[in-house]
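2024-03-11 09:14:02 INFO receiving multi-entity request
2024-03-11 09:14:02 INFO entity count = two
2024-03-11 09:14:03 INFO echoing inputs for audit
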Amino acid sequence: MSLSPYQHLEKRFKRVQVLRSITHLLRWDSEVLMPLGSSRIRSEQLALLDTECSAILLSKKTAVLLDRVESSSYSLDEWEEANVREMRRHWLYAKAIPKYLMNSLHRATTKAEVVWRRACEENNFKILSPHLEKVVDVVRDKAQFLGNAFGCSSYDALLDEHDPGRKSAEIDPIFQKLDLHLPPLIEKIIDKQSANLPVKISEKIPKSKQKDLGRFIMKKIGFPFNKGRLDESLHPFTEGTSEDLRITSLFAESDFLSGLMGILHETGHAMYDFGLPPDRFFQPVGRDRGMTVHESQALFLEMMIGRTPEFMNFAGPIVSRIFGVSGPAWQPENLYRMATQVRKSFNRMNADEVTYPMHILVRYELEKDIFSGSLRVKDLPDAWNEKFHKRMGIFPENVNQGCLQDSHWPQGYFGYFSTYALGAIMAAQLHRALKVEIPGFMQEIQQGDFSNLFDWLGKKIFQHGAKLSSQELLRQATGDSLNSDFYLDYLKEKYFVDTDIHS
Amino acid sequence: MSLSPYQHLEKRFKRVQVLRSITHLLRWDSEVLMPLGSSRIRSEQLALLDTECSAILLSKKTAVLLDRVESSSYSLDEWEEANVREMRRHWLYAKAIPKYLMNSLHRATTKAEVVWRRACEENNFKILSPHLEKVVDVVRDKAQFLGNAFGCSSYDALLDEHDPGRKSAEIDPIFQKLDLHLPPLIEKIIDKQSANLPVKISEKIPKSKQKDLGRFIMKKIGFPFNKGRLDESLHPFTEGTSEDLRITSLFAESDFLSGLMGILHETGHAMYDFGLPPDRFFQPVGRDRGMTVHESQALFLEMMIGRTPEFMNFAGPIVSRIFGVSGPAWQPENLYRMATQVRKSFNRMNADEVTYPMHILVRYELEKDIFSGSLRVKDLPDAWNEKFHKRMGIFPENVNQGCLQDSHWPQGYFGYFSTYALGAIMAAQLHRALKVEIPGFMQEIQQGDFSNLFDWLGKKIFQHGAKLSSQELLRQATGDSLNSDFYLDYLKEKYFVDTDIHS
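2024-03-11 09:21:47 INFO inference complete, emitting structure
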């Protein structure tokens, strides 16, 4: 039986997806298990898999098949049409960037990341600066090639890489509103919380017990351990495919709550991947719809579900039982206050949900300035500090508190940070829609029942894969387009109303 | 700068080797970590890597390059010449077997392995029989194709797959001698040992402590943990390359010695791989010289080094310290007696070094009968029992004690078992040569100093990779060809002389 051109394309993209699933596993292994001295062969392995993927995408036959399918009258259903659109998108990405530039990018980021680690140790931006400049130069070239291919500005091309179809023209007004309304809100919340600070936990909790707790909660949430794992790594992350998905968290003996919240966050990522349409598993249209949607799922579970009185009422007794602890610090109400304490800090990664967007706004503005040419890399530290101080009223004392704290830029990731804040906004919108459609869902969480929650997310988000645009996905799920008002409303209600009820 | 045809070949075979190194890691992960429900995507991954390897080997360009390099007067050094010979060998293997047959083999063995597990649970050979017959049929076809390509008999082609260049005409007289002299030796040793049985260990040792012990001993031996790991799995194995090599053992709380001996065995495998010539890492000539040599290294470390009074004098105090144990059972001399106790048992995997070859001879004869056509698969259980009884004087009561105990045949591995016994013989010959060249080396082992031992093995075996034939390698190292007299002498001396000295 001969295959149609569309089926031939599916076969080719299946091979790409299988190769990528191997890449995921190797990356996970590199972070979790790989002996330190094995990085040379690991680089060779990852590079070869990448070369093989590109070879399939860029082979003449793929181009010919794509042209034929797009220009012909083959009857495709809506999933297949969306799949062809996504295939073309992947093809354009592979085609747009010359190989020499990918090699330059690889060399520049490999070097910059190594120097970045040293720069952090020495609290010294100057040694990183020339290497980061090199990375920016290469990324700028890459962005120009992508912009030409997609017919958009360079910076929009970088945004598109992580969040397909998102443009700065959509983001700017959303972030401006946050910039206007969040700083006074932060002041008010900190002031209010100062009257009722949480009791501190004094017990140290062994890592093995923290993992037991994590696995217990994950099972309750519905994480399918027959197709996934929980392990430890230096930073929490999720890697893999819905056929083999592995999450990690970091377990500090004196701070179990961060580890648990990390698990919720990564479980949110994982549940999205597990819920993607299984019959499209090997196809581009069966993948997730970019990092804003992905982050929305992680933040939804961590912030809107996990950092709530109802979740703590559910989890508190489990925590006490598994850890063998009791006392005022371990009461659900105190755990809730710990999990929602707002602080002005220099550090993005441990920031609470109220101050978090401020960290993102600083980075988003700096990126735009760098790629518009108005900011030079060597001037980053001062520009960072100024923008940070303007929003948070505190001034970083050194570069480790400032522009050295993230690995994204040395690794060549520009246009990525915005998805964290946009994901939070999207999560708040989903939260609002869910409250309307299933008014009692937080009572179910309190009972440890997550089934309706994930049924709803499955229908609204997971099962659509990459069929719709991110914007259309949100509109169909909530009736609204992305709008930071919903996030501000969510914060106001949670931090001024809910706490009054429960404390 | 343009590459020579030879350099082009090296590039292509490097890609094959990198792809294979990924296969190794995926296999390790499947056995040690993979969630059970992820086997479907894992099969897809392994199959695709295999397809990619074949595509490189079988591309027209590879054939053209091989022809050019072989027929031309390019000046190659001896390593390069040996490399071309190995490349041609790999090419012939890939070329000889039609793709449809590889697919049939994959299907037949996948099915047979699943049924084999059930057959073991039900202690029932009949349900496996038709599936094993199918495997044998496909392997027979494969062996014919290989035999034609290599100009040898079908069974010799199967031997060659695992132990390049080894023929049954070489093996037969070696095994006949064992068959003649081992049975009376076994009787005598068991009789002698019955007068002085070891004291039994009553303590249960937690797995974590057994791993601590294993890692400590491995470090002493010289296992480079910056490029390797120790983990647990259902059966001990070694997987990976010298850039990332992972061994496993099985840790039973009531039998630490099996776990430790498993670690020594796998460390022996690993040290060989670590010692392969690093500048040939990506080339066929830089790989190991087949399974007899590999097994010789594992058995050398486990049997000739590990199961000795000197090793136990070294390891005993470490065992006591790490486990926190003491008493008569934990004395080095008792541990030695435990590690060298000879028993007639039905089980190959846990067999001692004296009875072990008998288990192999049974399998070797049965394989030859199957491939000569004189034995049908359905008649295997009776034939097994008869051959086993003839040698060991005991009769398996059921198929789990007999022909169901190994997974090799359902997995399609025929011609493999012989390498276990040949490896033991080769190890004994190396042991004898080492005793002549470094007479005091066992005193060094007693001091925990393994450096001269591995320097010697490195020079004699490791550093030659696949440059020499297995026969030539042994001849250069010891002056002799493979000969079971050395093994019989080794056993006589160890079991009649050494124990008298030390007990």
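2024-03-11 09:21:48 INFO post-check: The two ends of chain A are 68 Å apart (CA to CA).
2024-03-11 09:21:48 INFO post-check: Residues 64 and 195 of chain A are 68 Å apart (CA to CA).
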